[in-house]
Design brief:
Elements: H1 4-9, E1 14-18, E2 24-26, H2 27-43, E3 51-55, H3 62-70, E4 75-78, H4 85-94, E5 97-103, H5 107-114, E6 122-126, E7 137-139, H6 140-145, E8 159-160, E9 162-163, E10 173-174, H7 188-196, E11 204-207, H8 214-225, E12 229-232, H9 238-248, E13 252-255, H10 257-264, H11 268-271, E14 281-284, H12 291-301, E15 305-307, E16 312-314, E17 317-319
Parallel strand pairs: 1-12, 3-4, 3-5, 4-8, 5-6, 6-7, 11-12, 11-13, 13-14, 14-15
Antiparallel strand pairs: 1-2, 9-10, 16-17
Helix pairs in contact: 2-3, 4-5, 7-8, 10-12
Length: 325
């Protein structure tokens, strides 16, 4: 999530728009906030390949948290925002996070988890004022506000360290190699996502899923690296999804099959109320999509539905099943 050059040339363009509140973060604001956090990390003594952990709901600060790590050579772990305190503490400890950031909405679970994270050096909480954060946390806004908005002198590429769901035991971290590159150099996985989703410069990307998941995280990261606008839903609501497509002329999105099903369950008059003609590519992932659901969506939206599972061709893209990757 590095977009320094685009922030210089298009400072007032929205980088992020929150779906429910409409809160907008411009590229200039995103760049400045990411740099302030990067400065905090350096002042804390964090260096390349050190780890930080984030435990938040879909929040306006979520992307700048990732941006701060991606320009300081850090691995950042996005913790499932629905986990228990014990589960959160396990992941924070396992990834050896030196800094743990959460939000006011997650304070109860976060405080309980922090009690079992003895090696974390600093705890920050988004959305609380000075002196309002419960121990051992401090106000994120106050902490980063003390630092300049200029880039750190030794910018380096950082990356996400995501965890498996833990269905066969404890969650496991997936540690990708971290090249010694400047932050403007994307990881190969970002190039793969760009091709897979048919992304292009100037698009408007709608993300309806939790950002701690790999596909939403990677796709929004690619959108920002390409200088596009990302619209992020706090929670998925099928009618709101359609309304956001119409309002912001959304061109690209990624969903899971359950979201297609919920869209199809809307009354016919509601589904036809919104103009979705701006859509160019909608990718479904996470699980195979039932054929009747897929057919119904194509009948409704046309040949813009791209999939991960099973051979399919649409909009000039052909994707093979997982055994052939």
């Amino acid at each position: 999530m590095y977009a320094a050059e685009h922030a210089r040339t298009h400072p007032d363009q929205p980088a992020l728009i929150m779906g429910s509140t409409g809160e907008t973060v411009t590229y200039a604001e995103y760049e400045a906030r990411s740099n302030r956090l990067a400065q905090l990390f350096r002042a804390q003594g964090l260096r390349r390949r050190d780890h930080v952990a984030y435990f938040l709901e879909n929040h306006p600060r979520y992307l700048e948290l990732q941006g701060g790590a991606e320009r300081t050579g850090l691995y950042y772990t996005l913790v499932n925002s629905y986990l228990s305190a014990e589960e959160v503490a396990y992941i924070v400890n396992d990834c050896r996070a030196r800094v743990f950031v959460t939000s006011a909405a997650k304070r109860e679970v976060a405080v309980a988890a922090a009690a079992d994270c003895p090696d974390v050096e600093r705890f920050l909480m988004v959305g609380v004022g000075a002196g309002e954060a419960p121990a051992p946390f401090e106000s994120y806004e106050e902490a980063v506000g003390r630092f300049p908005a200029e880039p750190v002198a030794d910018e380096q590429l950082g990356a996400a360290l995501l965890y498996s769901s833990g269905t066969t035991g404890r969650p496991k971290g997936i540690l990708r190699p971290l090249p010694e590159d400047p932050p403007g150099t994307p990881l190969p996985v970002m190039q793969f996502v760009r091709l897979l989703f048919g992304m292009r410069e100037g698009m408007v990307y709608l993300s309806p899923a939790p950002l701690y998941h790999s596909a939403p995280q990677a796709s929004v990261a690619v959108a920002l690296r390409m200088g596009s606008t990302a619209v992020v839903m706090e929670h998925f609501d099928p009618e709101q999804y359609l309304a956001l497509v119409e309002r912001y002329r959304v061109t690209h999105s990624q969903v899971v099959p359950t979201m297609f099903s919920r869209l199809l369950k809307l009354p016919e008059e509601v589904r036809r109320r919104y103009d979705v003609s701006s859509l160019e590519s909608v990718v479904h992932a996470a699980a195979p999509c039932p054929v009747p659901v897929k057919e119904a969506m194509i009948d409704w939206w046309g040949p813009i539905i791209l999939e991960y599972y099973g051979a399919t061709e649409a909009n000039g893209f052909t994707f093979c099943n997982s055994e052939e990757w």
